């Protein structure tokens, strides 16, 4: 086993499938950098909303958003429990998790110019390896050569219940039905878009965590990491 070797870890899956929670924990345990690529799409969605180029009731203005991209700077600051997303230096971590941004982000993520710009940034972040990145196309497009790939799933109802609890705990006034609807709509948009649709990479290990606790899935992921490392 080569415990000194730094690898690239790609964790993809459906929205609210628990992938960020376990990716973040694994990165912390093994001392890797963690990147939530969904936060980057959310930051672009927020910048576009603020510029009046998309809203929950308005289709994205693709030309306007493409023109906006060069002025959108996304960065992360590491915190004790993960990361804060910075949009042009402003901490937007809480705002990008709102249901409003969640409603706009999937259409934004279908825009080819947005995907190209973000995929380039993500590849740059992974140049020196030692990274855990989660998203939808990390194992298929961003890092097709990643040494470890996981594809996470759980039923739409389970995922909506987790997301609803998360939002309610933060004081958001949403109903379970609204969250379930949003989860299903995002699944559909993510799976059917032309560019980099959500797919399980052929060499990814699938995990259905519908019936797993957070501790169980963290342990499962750490075991897999140890197996991968031992096989190198
Ligand atoms: O993981 P999340 O729910 O925060 O992702 C927000 C949206 O961004 C989701 O609708 C899909 C999109 N996304 C993507 O297309 N590619 C990624 N690598 C990450 C997220």
Radius of gyration: 17 Å
Kindly report the average pLDDT value: 93
Strand content: 15-25%
- The coarse overall form would be globular
Report the end-to-end length measured between terminal Cα atoms: 7 Å
Helical coverage, percent range: 40-55%
* Low-pLDDT segments: none
Order of strands across the biggest sheet?
A: 2-6-1-7-8
Secondary-structure content class: alpha/beta
Named once each, the bound ligands are: 2'-deoxycytidine-5'-monophosphate
Spell out the helices and strands N to C.
EHEHHEEEHHEHEHHEH
Helix count, per DSSP? 9
Number of strands: 8
Task: Give a quick account of the main beta sheet: strands, pairing sense, barrel closure.
Answer: 5 strands, parallel
Write up what this structure looks like.
The model has no long low-confidence stretch (mean pLDDT about 95). The protein starts with 7 loop residues before the first strand and ends with a helix. The chain is α/β, with parallel strands linked by helices. The strands form 2 sheets. A 5-stranded parallel β-sheet has the order 2-6-1-7-8. Strands 3-4-5 form a 3-stranded antiparallel β-sheet. Helix 4 (about 100-110) packs parallel to helix 8 (about 175-190). The protein is globular and about 50 Å long. It is built from 9 helices and 8 strands. The longest helix is centred in the C-terminal third of the chain and has 18 residues, at about 215-230. Strand 3 (about 75-80) and strand 4 (about 80-85) form a beta hairpin. The chain binds 2'-deoxycytidine-5'-monophosphate (DC).
């Amino acid at each position: 086993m080569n415990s000194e070797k730094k690898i690239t870890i790609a964790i993809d899956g459906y929205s609210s499938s628990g992938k960020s929670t376990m990716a973040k924990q694994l990165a912390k345990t093994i001392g890797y950098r963690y990147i939530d690529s969904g936060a980057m799409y959310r930051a672009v969605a927020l910048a576009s909303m603020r510029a009046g180029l998309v809203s929950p009731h308005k289709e994205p203005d693709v030309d306007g958003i493409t023109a906006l991209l060069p002025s959108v700077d996304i960065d992360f600051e590491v915190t004790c429990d993960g990361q804060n997303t910075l949009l042009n230096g402003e901490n937007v971590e809480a705002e990008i998790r709102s249901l409003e941004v969640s409603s706009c982000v999937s259409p934004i993520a279908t825009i080819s110019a947005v995907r190209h710009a973000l995929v380039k940034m993500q590849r740059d972040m992974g140049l020196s390896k030692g990274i855990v990145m989660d998203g939808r196309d990390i194992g298929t497009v961003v890092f097709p050569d990643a040494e470890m790939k996981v594809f996470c799933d759980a039923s739409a109802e389970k995922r909506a219940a987790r997301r609803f609890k998360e939002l309610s705990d933060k004081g958001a006034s949403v109903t379970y039905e609204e969250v379930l609807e949003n989860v299903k709509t995002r699944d559909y948009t993510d799976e059917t878009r032309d560019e980099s649709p959500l797919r399980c990479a052929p060499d990814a290990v699938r995990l259905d965590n519908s019936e797993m606790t957070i501790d169980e899935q963290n342990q499962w992921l750490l075991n897999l990491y140890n197996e991968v490392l031992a096989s190198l």
